[in-house]
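# nightly structure sweep
# worker-07 picked up a monomer target from the shared queue
# config: single-sequence mode, recycle default, output format = structure tokens
# input follows
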Amino acid sequence: MKQTKQRIKELLMAKRLKLTPQRCAIYEMLTARTDHPTAEDIYRTVKRAYPMISQNTVYYTLTALKEAGLISEVNFGHEHARFDANMDRHHHLVCVSCQEINDLYDETLDRLSMTAKKGRQYTILGHRVEFYGYCKRCQGKSKSSSRPEGRSRRAVQ
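# output follows
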């Protein structure tokens, strides 16, 4: 979903957002990634090209991009909010171990509708489905670290 620099400028101008090199860099970085980075991840990445950027600028820009409808904030019980520039209809697979988030496209999930009586009391604007489990990498870790019954295990702190 990576956007060209020109397309990024067009999108920001269409949303009446001030064009700054830092704002363009933050949005470009988000459109190039699918791993749903945190604000801190974004700050560390963009700081390489713009050493004078502040964390405040990153947070302010993320808020402006979110309010403009160019990104969404995803938070599935993580310690920190994560950000997604993929505004296409999609859902998420979330690893409860490593916190990895993957996009999931499924037309059946897109067509879910509210049938419960309680739902008829609302004007539904949309929905999002999240599946929680263990990614392939973490499944492998748990299998390799499993011990036979009766052996002691160290407590994880």
